[in-house]
Design goal:
heterodimer, A: about 250 residues, mainly alpha, 14 helices, B: about 250 residues, 4-stranded antiparallel beta sheet, 9 helices, 10 strands, globular, binds adenosine-5'-triphosphate, binds magnesium ion
């Protein structure tokens, strides 16, 4: 059996597991509610009176900061707690295939959640004439952002046996990745450090790289940033799981 | 078909498995005995490739489990000690998953699942989610997963644990029957089981093999001719010996 067939089988099982638990639906509802509240209430969607989804995408890094770790925290913590990891890793699969299969399932789940926000696209199209290319780009950025946070959650989930601990560490890591590029923080940094240093530090932030995509600019460097974050975190997950097994 | 050479596993300061070597060939059922903490589960985890050995070598059907684990894993069916399974799945979807990841598709998969369900008498619970099953049924579900691809090699960690007397009997008959065409290694604390099922038994104590022979040979080594007396003598005398030598050192 080839590698992709194995990964797909794992992905399918994981996705089914999501929808068999009520948590998935709770998550979807909370996500959609929060996305709505942030966009229309705090984001001032109507007050802006412009045909764009800036207020919608602008909140994504903050929303995902908490919601993505909630999706990813069970990935490996649960396997270890329930002992199913022994079953999974003695099946004819490699650790990398198992990690990728589980990661893709959660990413797909997040993509589904993102797809459910489609009514805002319809709304903005009814009210005005937005640039739908920019919107598509914003969705791409959100998906990459979710993937990057998710890979980090995957990593922390392999690290901790408890879901709660895994969640907290993932949120902390995500917060650091936001704050190093968050304007109020960079302003403070700018008082001590030279602009070049501040810019270099901000280059590690998800905000810096999400900003362009959200505004409709696909820069290879931004895409590369998110992809390498995912590769790095998943690779680290592999190292962590191997070291657990070595005892 | 299973070849274990100088297998050692060290956890921190503890030698859980210490220089263990044995072979199991086709048609053999090897019983793995030993007191709690002797290293039975650890040995099985190394054979199935779940944990890497500190040193030593395992090969399954000629494939090295450290260098190239996938071919070996394909040929092994494994029932881990706690009989873990995905709680939220139904028995059917869990077995479908197990079959599919073993490369069985379509009709082949359906047939394999039904064969395993029949063998383990799971018909009555097939659409029930695993978390709602009783312990014995959960154990049988994991057992079914281990035999779903009709493997050449079966590794089972306490396969009769938690089963009712009828099911224990069924399981023993099944293991004996499957043993004719497979290489089987299983651990147990029930010594009658060894006499009823095994062609050979290994007793392991504190990581080391202390006896290896057919049940009759082992029985003959005891004055009373009983396996449990032999087991007690060999695992207790060892402990007493160790305590004595510790005293001498002090
Ligand atoms: N992951 C681990 N980390 C540290 N020590 C371990 C680990 N796994 C097992 N051990 C130790 O190795 C020894 C052997 O354990 P093992 O589970 O193999 O025993 P066993 O023979 O299966 O016992 P039982 O009859 O109770 O199932 C024990 O002392 C145990 O504490
Ligand atoms: Mg054990």
């Amino acid at each position: 059996m080839n590698s992709w067939a194995v990964i797909c089988t794992i992905t399918r099982r994981e996705i089914a597991a999501y929808f068999e638990s009520p948590l998935a639906y709770v998550f979807l509802v909370i996500y959609l509610l929060l996305a709505g509240v942030f966009t229309f209430v705090f984001g001032g969607f109507f007050e802006r009176s412009e045909a764009s989804l800036g207020s919608f995408f602008g909140w994504m890094p903050w929303l995902f900061l908490f919601l993505v770790p909630a999706v990813g925290m069970r990935l490996w913590a649960d396997e270890r707690r329930l002992g199913t990891i022994e079953l999974l890793l003695t099946l004819p699969v490699t650790t990398a295939q198992a990690i990728l299969g589980k990661f893709l399932a959660s990413w797909l789940f997040l993509a589904i959640a993102l797809a459910f926000t489609f009514p805002v696209v319809i709304t903005v199209n009814v009210l005005g004439e937005p640039d739908n290319g920019v919107i598509a780009c914003g969705y791409l950025g959100s998906l990459l952002l979710a993937g990057a946070y998710l890979a980090l959650s995957c990593m922390t989930s392999a690290l901790a046996r408890s879901q709660v601990v895994s969640f907290i560490i993932a949120v902390m890591l995500g917060l650091i990745l936001i704050l190093v590029g968050f304007n109020p923080v960079t302003d403070i940094l700018a008082r001590w450090a030279s602009p070049a240093v501040v810019e270099a530090i901000a280059g590690f932030s998800v905000l810096t790289h999400f900003d362009g995509l959200q505004k409709g600019v696909i820069d290879t460097r931004d895409v590369l940033y998110f992809v390498s974050l995912m590769v790095f975190a998943l690779f680290t997950t592999d190292v962590i799981i191997r070291s657990h097994r070595a005892g | 078909m299973i070849k274990v050479e100088n297998l050692t596993k060290v956890f921190g300061a503890k030698r859980a498995v210490d220089d263990v070597s044995f072979e199991v060939s086709k048609g053999e059922v090897l019983g793995f005995l030993g007191p709690n903490g002797a290293g039975k589960s650890t040995t099985m985890r190394m054979i199935t490739g779940f944990i890497p050995p500190t040193s030593g070598k395992v090969s399954v059907c000629g494939f090295d489990m450290a260098e190239d684990p996938l071919p070996g894993k394909r040929r092994i069916g494994y029932l881990p000690e706690a009989a873990p399974s995905y709680q939220e799945m139904t028995v059917r979807s869990f077995l479908n998953f197990a079959a599919e990841i073993r490369g069985l598709r379509g009709d082949e998969r359906t047939r394999a699942v039904w064969r395993a369900v029949e063998t383990c008498s799971l018909e009555s619970v097939i659409n029930q989610s695993i978390e709602t099953l009783s312990k014995g049924f959960r154990h049988r579900t994991c057992f079914a997963q281990a035999i779903i691809h009709d493997p050449e090699v079966l590794v089972m960690d306490e396969p009769t644990d938690g089963l009712d007397p009828n099911q224990k009997h069924e399981a023993r008959t099944l293991i004996r029957r499957m043993g004719e065409s497979k290489a089987i290694i299983f651990s147990t604390h029930i010594l009658e089981e060894v006499e009823a099922v095994c062609t050979r038994a290994i007793i392991i104590d504190r990581g080391r093999i202390v006896a290896n022979g057919t049940p009759d040979e082992l029985k003959a080594r005891s004055e009373t001719g009983r396996l449990d007396d032999f087991f007690r003598a060999i695992t207790l005398s060892d402990t007493a010996g160790a305590a004595n030598s510790a005293k001498e050192v002090a």
